[in-house]
Amino acid sequence: MKNYVLTEFEHIKGIGSASGLIYYQNVLFIISDNSTYLYQYIIDKKLVLKFPLVDNPQENISKKDKLDLEALTHFGNQLFIFGSGSTAQRNTMFSLNLENDALQKNDLSILFEFLRKLASLNDDELNIEGAIYVNKTMLLFQRGNGKNSKNGIFIIPDNASLSKHFVAIKLPKIKNVEVTFTDAILVNNFIYFLATAEDTVCTYEDGEVLGTLIGKMKSDTFEIVETQIISNSQKFEGITLYENNDKEIHFLLCEDNDTEILESKIYKLTLKK
To answer: How far apart are CA 190 and CA 213, in angstroms?
Structure first.
Protein backbone atom coordinates (compact mmCIF):
# COMPACT_ATOMS: atom_id res chain seq x y z
CA MET A 1 0.00 0.00 0.00
CA LYS A 2 3.04 2.26 -0.13
CA ASN A 3 2.09 3.44 -3.61
CA TYR A 4 -0.76 5.85 -2.90
CA VAL A 5 -1.83 9.31 -4.04
CA LEU A 6 -4.09 11.63 -2.00
CA THR A 7 -5.51 14.67 -3.80
CA GLU A 8 -8.34 17.14 -3.23
CA PHE A 9 -11.40 16.08 -5.26
CA GLU A 10 -14.10 18.64 -4.39
CA HIS A 11 -14.48 21.67 -2.13
CA ILE A 12 -18.14 21.81 -1.15
CA LYS A 13 -19.75 24.85 0.43
CA GLY A 14 -22.89 24.33 2.48
CA ILE A 15 -21.87 21.13 4.29
CA GLY A 16 -19.84 21.10 7.50
CA SER A 17 -18.36 18.40 9.77
CA ALA A 18 -18.73 15.65 7.18
CA SER A 19 -18.71 12.25 8.88
CA GLY A 20 -19.74 9.76 6.19
CA LEU A 21 -20.29 9.54 2.44
CA ILE A 22 -21.57 7.22 -0.28
CA TYR A 23 -20.84 7.59 -4.00
CA TYR A 24 -23.87 6.45 -6.02
CA GLN A 25 -24.74 7.24 -9.64
CA ASN A 26 -22.53 10.34 -9.83
CA VAL A 27 -23.99 11.69 -6.59
CA LEU A 28 -22.29 11.96 -3.23
CA PHE A 29 -24.59 11.31 -0.28
CA ILE A 30 -23.01 12.96 2.77
CA ILE A 31 -23.91 13.05 6.46
CA SER A 32 -22.64 15.48 9.07
CA ASP A 33 -22.37 14.75 12.78
CA ASN A 34 -23.65 18.28 13.54
CA SER A 35 -26.68 18.15 11.26
CA THR A 36 -30.03 16.43 10.78
CA TYR A 37 -29.94 16.63 6.99
CA LEU A 38 -28.81 14.04 4.49
CA TYR A 39 -26.91 15.99 1.86
CA GLN A 40 -26.78 15.13 -1.83
CA TYR A 41 -23.95 16.64 -3.84
CA ILE A 42 -24.50 16.34 -7.59
CA ILE A 43 -20.93 16.24 -8.82
CA ASP A 44 -21.27 17.41 -12.43
CA LYS A 45 -23.54 20.32 -11.44
CA LYS A 46 -21.68 21.13 -8.20
CA LEU A 47 -25.09 21.38 -6.55
CA VAL A 48 -25.95 20.65 -2.90
CA LEU A 49 -29.43 19.35 -2.04
CA LYS A 50 -30.70 18.85 1.52
CA PHE A 51 -32.97 15.99 2.53
CA PRO A 52 -34.46 16.53 6.03
CA LEU A 53 -34.23 13.52 8.33
CA VAL A 54 -36.41 14.99 11.09
CA ASP A 55 -39.05 17.65 11.55
CA ASN A 56 -37.42 21.06 11.94
CA PRO A 57 -33.96 19.95 10.75
CA GLN A 58 -30.93 21.98 11.79
CA GLU A 59 -27.26 22.47 11.06
CA ASN A 60 -24.48 23.13 13.59
CA ILE A 61 -26.48 21.56 16.43
CA SER A 62 -24.85 21.86 19.86
CA LYS A 63 -22.75 18.90 21.01
CA LYS A 64 -25.14 17.93 23.82
CA ASP A 65 -28.19 17.93 21.51
CA LYS A 66 -26.89 16.51 18.23
CA LEU A 67 -27.78 13.03 16.95
CA ASP A 68 -24.09 12.52 16.07
CA LEU A 69 -24.74 10.77 12.76
CA GLU A 70 -21.45 8.98 12.09
CA ALA A 71 -22.03 5.83 10.01
CA LEU A 72 -23.51 5.65 6.52
CA THR A 73 -23.86 2.53 4.36
CA HIS A 74 -26.10 1.26 1.60
CA PHE A 75 -27.44 -2.00 0.27
CA GLY A 76 -29.42 -2.17 -2.95
CA ASN A 77 -31.60 0.95 -3.00
CA GLN A 78 -31.45 1.52 0.77
CA LEU A 79 -29.28 3.95 2.69
CA PHE A 80 -28.71 3.31 6.40
CA ILE A 81 -27.58 6.11 8.75
CA PHE A 82 -26.50 5.45 12.34
CA GLY A 83 -25.94 7.66 15.35
CA SER A 84 -22.79 6.86 17.29
CA GLY A 85 -24.54 5.65 20.46
CA SER A 86 -22.05 7.60 22.59
CA THR A 87 -24.87 9.32 24.54
CA ALA A 88 -28.58 8.66 25.05
CA GLN A 89 -29.29 11.36 22.43
CA ARG A 90 -27.34 9.44 19.78
CA ASN A 91 -29.23 6.16 19.43
CA THR A 92 -31.11 6.82 16.18
CA MET A 93 -30.96 4.94 12.88
CA PHE A 94 -32.53 6.18 9.65
CA SER A 95 -33.19 4.11 6.55
CA LEU A 96 -33.99 5.78 3.23
CA ASN A 97 -35.35 4.16 0.08
CA LEU A 98 -33.57 5.90 -2.80
CA GLU A 99 -36.30 4.98 -5.29
CA ASN A 100 -39.27 6.55 -3.52
CA ASP A 101 -37.65 8.65 -0.72
CA ALA A 102 -39.48 6.63 1.95
CA LEU A 103 -37.78 7.41 5.26
CA GLN A 104 -37.91 5.34 8.43
CA LYS A 105 -36.59 6.31 11.85
CA ASN A 106 -35.67 3.71 14.45
CA ASP A 107 -34.64 4.02 18.10
CA LEU A 108 -31.68 1.68 18.72
CA SER A 109 -31.42 2.32 22.48
CA ILE A 110 -32.15 -1.31 23.41
CA LEU A 111 -29.75 -2.69 20.79
CA PHE A 112 -26.98 -0.28 21.74
CA GLU A 113 -27.34 -1.12 25.43
CA PHE A 114 -27.02 -4.80 24.49
CA LEU A 115 -23.89 -4.02 22.45
CA ARG A 116 -22.31 -2.22 25.40
CA LYS A 117 -22.79 -5.29 27.56
CA LEU A 118 -21.67 -7.61 24.78
CA ALA A 119 -18.32 -5.80 24.46
CA SER A 120 -18.02 -4.94 28.17
CA LEU A 121 -18.06 -1.21 27.44
CA ASN A 122 -18.77 1.52 29.96
CA ASP A 123 -21.89 3.64 29.38
CA ASP A 124 -19.88 6.35 27.60
CA GLU A 125 -17.64 4.09 25.52
CA LEU A 126 -19.90 2.86 22.73
CA ASN A 127 -18.97 4.83 19.61
CA ILE A 128 -20.22 3.47 16.28
CA GLU A 129 -18.31 5.09 13.40
CA GLY A 130 -18.77 2.74 10.45
CA ALA A 131 -21.27 0.25 9.04
CA ILE A 132 -21.29 -2.43 6.34
CA TYR A 133 -24.26 -4.58 5.33
CA VAL A 134 -23.30 -7.93 3.79
CA ASN A 135 -24.75 -11.47 3.70
CA LYS A 136 -27.87 -10.40 5.61
CA THR A 137 -25.65 -9.16 8.42
CA MET A 138 -24.84 -5.65 9.65
CA LEU A 139 -21.26 -4.99 10.72
CA LEU A 140 -20.90 -1.99 13.04
CA PHE A 141 -17.41 -0.63 13.65
CA GLN A 142 -16.68 0.44 17.21
CA ARG A 143 -14.22 3.30 17.60
CA GLY A 144 -12.19 2.50 20.69
CA ASN A 145 -11.29 6.00 21.79
CA GLY A 146 -12.66 5.51 25.31
CA LYS A 147 -10.57 4.74 28.38
CA ASN A 148 -10.50 1.01 27.63
CA SER A 149 -9.56 1.58 23.96
CA LYS A 150 -11.72 -1.23 22.53
CA ASN A 151 -11.71 -1.18 18.75
CA GLY A 152 -13.81 -3.88 17.19
CA ILE A 153 -16.68 -5.02 15.02
CA PHE A 154 -20.19 -5.90 16.13
CA ILE A 155 -21.70 -8.67 13.99
CA ILE A 156 -25.51 -8.36 13.91
CA PRO A 157 -27.37 -10.93 11.75
CA ASP A 158 -30.83 -10.16 10.37
CA ASN A 159 -31.99 -13.53 11.66
CA ALA A 160 -32.92 -13.03 15.32
CA SER A 161 -32.19 -16.68 16.06
CA LEU A 162 -28.51 -16.15 15.26
CA SER A 163 -26.33 -14.69 17.99
CA LYS A 164 -24.79 -11.24 17.88
CA HIS A 165 -21.15 -11.02 18.78
CA PHE A 166 -18.20 -8.63 19.08
CA VAL A 167 -14.77 -9.14 17.55
CA ALA A 168 -12.05 -7.04 19.16
CA ILE A 169 -9.51 -5.67 16.67
CA LYS A 170 -5.98 -4.58 17.62
CA LEU A 171 -4.96 -1.61 15.48
CA PRO A 172 -1.53 0.00 14.88
CA LYS A 173 -0.25 3.14 16.58
CA ILE A 174 0.61 6.59 15.28
CA LYS A 175 2.95 8.57 17.55
CA ASN A 176 2.44 5.96 20.30
CA VAL A 177 -1.36 6.35 20.20
CA GLU A 178 -3.46 3.44 18.95
CA VAL A 179 -5.60 4.44 16.00
CA THR A 180 -9.36 3.99 16.22
CA PHE A 181 -11.91 3.12 13.53
CA THR A 182 -13.60 6.04 11.76
CA ASP A 183 -15.22 4.22 8.79
CA ALA A 184 -15.09 1.09 6.66
CA ILE A 185 -16.23 -0.23 3.28
CA LEU A 186 -16.41 -3.66 1.66
CA VAL A 187 -14.72 -4.13 -1.74
CA ASN A 188 -14.86 -7.66 -3.12
CA ASN A 189 -13.53 -9.89 -0.31
CA PHE A 190 -11.72 -7.18 1.64
CA ILE A 191 -12.72 -4.51 4.12
CA TYR A 192 -10.93 -1.20 3.68
CA PHE A 193 -11.07 0.92 6.81
CA LEU A 194 -10.02 4.35 8.04
CA ALA A 195 -8.59 4.79 11.52
CA THR A 196 -7.40 7.94 13.25
CA ALA A 197 -5.10 8.62 16.18
CA GLU A 198 -6.56 11.33 18.39
CA ASP A 199 -5.04 12.44 21.69
CA THR A 200 -8.10 11.84 23.86
CA VAL A 201 -9.61 9.10 26.03
CA CYS A 202 -13.16 10.43 25.63
CA THR A 203 -15.82 9.55 23.06
CA TYR A 204 -17.43 12.95 23.64
CA GLU A 205 -14.63 15.53 23.50
CA ASP A 206 -12.30 15.93 20.52
CA GLY A 207 -8.53 15.83 20.93
CA GLU A 208 -5.43 16.67 18.91
CA VAL A 209 -5.40 14.71 15.65
CA LEU A 210 -2.13 12.79 15.21
CA GLY A 211 -2.88 11.19 11.85
CA THR A 212 -5.06 8.84 9.83
CA LEU A 213 -4.30 5.52 8.15
CA ILE A 214 -6.10 3.28 5.70
CA GLY A 215 -6.12 -0.44 6.35
CA LYS A 216 -7.12 -3.58 4.51
CA MET A 217 -8.49 -6.67 6.24
CA LYS A 218 -9.95 -9.99 5.15
CA SER A 219 -13.73 -9.88 5.32
CA ASP A 220 -14.11 -13.46 6.56
CA THR A 221 -11.51 -13.48 9.36
CA PHE A 222 -10.98 -9.73 10.00
CA GLU A 223 -7.25 -10.33 9.74
CA ILE A 224 -5.45 -7.08 8.90
CA VAL A 225 -3.41 -7.52 5.72
CA GLU A 226 -1.73 -4.11 5.51
CA THR A 227 -1.99 -0.49 6.61
CA GLN A 228 -0.70 2.82 5.34
CA ILE A 229 -0.60 6.25 7.00
CA ILE A 230 -2.16 8.76 4.60
CA SER A 231 -2.04 11.92 6.74
CA ASN A 232 -0.18 13.11 9.82
CA SER A 233 -2.69 15.81 10.72
CA GLN A 234 -6.13 15.16 9.20
CA LYS A 235 -9.08 13.19 10.60
CA PHE A 236 -10.76 11.36 7.75
CA GLU A 237 -14.15 10.03 8.84
CA GLY A 238 -15.78 8.69 5.68
CA ILE A 239 -14.75 6.43 2.81
CA THR A 240 -16.60 5.32 -0.33
CA LEU A 241 -15.58 3.47 -3.47
CA TYR A 242 -15.18 5.69 -6.53
CA GLU A 243 -13.54 3.43 -9.13
CA ASN A 244 -11.97 -0.04 -9.17
CA ASN A 245 -9.91 -1.37 -12.08
CA ASP A 246 -7.13 -3.90 -12.68
CA LYS A 247 -4.31 -1.54 -11.72
CA GLU A 248 -5.76 0.88 -9.17
CA ILE A 249 -8.54 1.35 -6.68
CA HIS A 250 -9.90 4.86 -6.08
CA PHE A 251 -11.72 5.96 -2.93
CA LEU A 252 -13.33 9.25 -1.94
CA LEU A 253 -12.77 10.43 1.63
CA CYS A 254 -14.42 13.10 3.74
CA GLU A 255 -12.73 15.04 6.52
CA ASP A 256 -14.23 16.21 9.80
CA ASN A 257 -12.50 19.48 10.60
CA ASP A 258 -14.34 19.87 13.94
CA THR A 259 -15.50 23.42 13.18
CA GLU A 260 -18.85 25.11 12.60
CA ILE A 261 -17.83 26.31 9.13
CA LEU A 262 -20.22 24.94 6.51
CA GLU A 263 -17.53 23.79 4.10
CA SER A 264 -16.19 20.31 3.39
CA LYS A 265 -13.27 19.03 1.36
CA ILE A 266 -13.60 15.68 -0.37
CA TYR A 267 -10.37 13.87 -1.21
CA LYS A 268 -9.54 11.15 -3.72
CA LEU A 269 -7.27 8.39 -2.50
CA THR A 270 -5.69 6.18 -5.17
CA LEU A 271 -4.02 2.90 -4.22
CA LYS A 272 -1.88 0.89 -6.60
CA LYS A 273 -2.63 -2.83 -6.81
So the answer is: 16
